[in-house]
């Protein structure tokens, strides 16, 4: 026998229905929460599906022991991801579940381009990170926040020097925005703050004529001597300091012999 429409519409009946469904919902939620927290759904495997060169198994095990909490259904994937991205060599991490008991991890590692300032490394996108590396790397230095600018300059200057077979060992950007570099031959170049690429291009163009190997008046080969330092900040040439008092193989008029006063930029 069903209740009358008048009784169904009574406010107390409506409240009773809401309370009943609410109680049933809470009971269902409690049962589901109890089930998903059971050891039957425990996570037992952390699988790295991307090859890694620097992240160690011990580091991954430490993250798994300290940060993986809960079961297959309750584990906080964002917490695990953030923990992985705090590892020294990890640039980016992605974490996924795989039924029934596995977390699958994809890692993107930093690829070091150079050492940065005194205690860090920098990658090809100018991102600074702190990690230990034993291999030989060029050194880049600059004010805080200038890493992307210095990396870009390193590439541009390196491309200009490539025809001479020279590589940049050290590139510095001073707080006054002046550039100075040291090459793999030991030669240092002062570029200043303005027209740096034009100054370097002029140096590259004149270098073979000024410092390349040549023949003596007697027809004997004279070996090239690499300058110790070159100041490119002159408006109409550059100043050269040769090692041990040597002179360049030849001079081009106004190219290096008697440049006017160097610019401060």
Q: Could you walk me through the main structural features you see in this protein, from its secondary elements to its overall organization?
A:
This protein has 265 residues and is α/β, with parallel strands linked by helices. It has three domains: 7-36; 42-109, Roll (Ubiquitin-like (UB roll)), CATH 3.10.20; 113-245, Cell division protein FtsQ/DivIB (Rossmann fold). The protein is built from six helices and 14 strands. A nine-stranded mixed beta sheet has the order 6-5-4-7-8-9-10-13-14, with helices on one face. Strands 1-3-2 form a three-stranded mixed beta sheet, with helices on one face. The chain starts with a helix and ends in a 24-residue tail after the last strand. 19% of the residues are buried. Residues 34-38 and 250-258 have low confidence and may be disordered.
Keywords:
3 domains; three-stranded mixed sheet; elongated; 265 residues; Rossmann fold; alpha/beta; nine-stranded mixed sheet; Ubiquitin-like (UB roll)
């Amino acid at each position: 026998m069903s209740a009358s429409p008048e009784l169904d519409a009574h406010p107390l009946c409506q409240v009773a229905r809401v309370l009943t469904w609410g109680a049933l919902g809470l009971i269902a939620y409690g049962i589901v929460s109890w089930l998903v927290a059971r050891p039957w759904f425990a996570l037992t495997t952390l699988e790295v599906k991307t090859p890694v060169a620097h992240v160690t198994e011990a580091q991954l095990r430490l993250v798994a022991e300290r940060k993986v909490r809960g079961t297959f259904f309750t584990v906080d994937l964002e917490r695990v991801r953030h923990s992985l991205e705090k590892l020294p060599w990890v640039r980016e991490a992605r974490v996924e579940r795989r039924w029934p008991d596995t977390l699958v991890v994809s890692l993107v590692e930093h690829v070091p381009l150079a050492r940065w300032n005194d205690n860090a490394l920098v990658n090809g996108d100018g991102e600074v990170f702190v990690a230990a590396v034993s291999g030989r790397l060029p050194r880049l230095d600059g004010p805080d926040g200038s890493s992307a600018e210095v990396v870009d300059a390193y590439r541009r200057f390196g491309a200009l020097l490539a025809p001479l077979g020279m590589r940049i060992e050290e590139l510095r950007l001073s707080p006054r925005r002046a550039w100075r570099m040291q090459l793999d031959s030991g030669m240092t170049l002062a570029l200043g703050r303005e027209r740096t690429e034009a100054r370097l291009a002029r140096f590259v163009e004149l270098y073979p004529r000024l410092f390349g190997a040549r023949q003596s008046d007697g027809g004997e080969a004279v070996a090239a001597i690499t300058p110790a330092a070159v100041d490119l900040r002159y408006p109409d040439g550059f100043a050269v300091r040769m090692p041990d008092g040597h002179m360049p193989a030849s001079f081009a008029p106004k190219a290096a012999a008697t440049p006017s006063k160097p610019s401060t930029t």
